[in-house]
Amino acid sequence: MPIPESAGDSGTARSTDRLLTIDTGNLFRDNVGAEGVAHEELVQFAPELHRVHAELVTKSAGGLDSEYACLHLATTMRDALPQIREAAAGMKEYRDILLIGIGGSNLGTKAIRHALKPEDDAPRASADASGRRLHFIENIDSYHLERLFRRLSPGTTALLCISKSGGTIETVVQYLILRDWLTRSLGAEEARRRQWVITDPGHGWLRERVRAEGLASLPVPPQVGGRYSVLSAVGLLPLAALDVDVDALLQGAADSAARCLSPDPQENPALQLAGLYYLLEQRRNKRISIMMPYVSRLRLFADWYCQLWAESLGKWQGPRPAETAAGSLPVRAMGAVDQHSQLQMYLESRHDKMFTFINLDRWDHDFAIPLDAPAQRGFPYLEDRSLVDVIHAEFLATRQVITDAGHPNVTLGMPVLDAHALGQLIDLYQRTTIYTGLLYGINPLDQPSVEKGKKLTIQYLQRSAS
Ligand code: PA5
To answer: At residue 396, does pLDDT exceed 80?
Structure first.
């Protein structure tokens, strides 16, 4: 059942041939049998969906001051683009940009960079046409830092430190080491000029450093949390420094938002997806939610989705020890690679999985398959076929076997691989995640257990120091 392309009027210019297609047909019983949702079930669930839609509308009223401020970034960040571009121009003076941040502070940027400006040589950092390279400093890894110090020169390097809270230990310690490296080589003033900070506008250790040292900085709106922040300066600044079309990214998100205005799930793709994912988890025991793009460049988008889904929805419903956990475990798979790895288990293990395929409609590049006589004899069906034909056949075949095995699955079709389509995917999944959290009756924006871990790490450091 494809979801219609237009719902409501957003006031933004959009062209329907650039919108994602969302085919939820294989989530229903008609196509996958008993493991799917019955159409009447979704109809009966409408009051719940209306409830969560109304809650989302209420909690996002008030723009960037509202609880769901993240849903306004697509429109409000347009005004900040000149400032972001100015900061990006400053950064572009340096060949190597070290982005220090973790979790929501870098996963979105990594996903979009990988999709649109991918690294050309896996373990090395990517270099764009001008030779500029963006390096991600996230996990604490002395091997990685040592290697960077050997390869980089302070003279061509700038730092971009991103942390909403301004105090995440992995980010802070690596920032301190890298600042010190620059300062020892270039002197305090020159090192200061090569630092940019993105953090909360009012609070936190990083904000204090910005004030005390006059560092260049951009704010993350106070109500916007890490994994919902990619459309703020958190993602826009490093992506603008890589010449990603950030206008198109925001426009894509705005175009997606415009499809999600209705309380009717047939007219609101995020609401329909949330309802179906929720019903499948709660009533059909689909405890695992697998995202499987058939485009290698979306591998890190699936990572971004995994963080968003897991950290937002993996929560207890009500106070412990109520044994009713919320959420399905997000898992990333890659087509066609995981056909040769995970697929066997997907097909023959428990019926506890649902699938989200992402398929690309139009590839920018394709290759004819040159068949010499032996190849023609071995693979006659490849006559007049191209590489894109092959990956497309693999996608159709895998989806078919998964459907035939009775596993619910949805297909998102990307018209092209560009910033506009990625903006749509980001908005669609942020909204779907929030709606799903509201269906579970949990707060999709917090991460109480992650916070506990952060505090305990500090206690362990205190103990070992004493
Ligand atoms: O989504 C979240 O809130 C987290 O994943 C954070 O992004 C992560 O813990 C890093 O936090 P911060 O941006 O405060 O350094």
So the answer is: yes
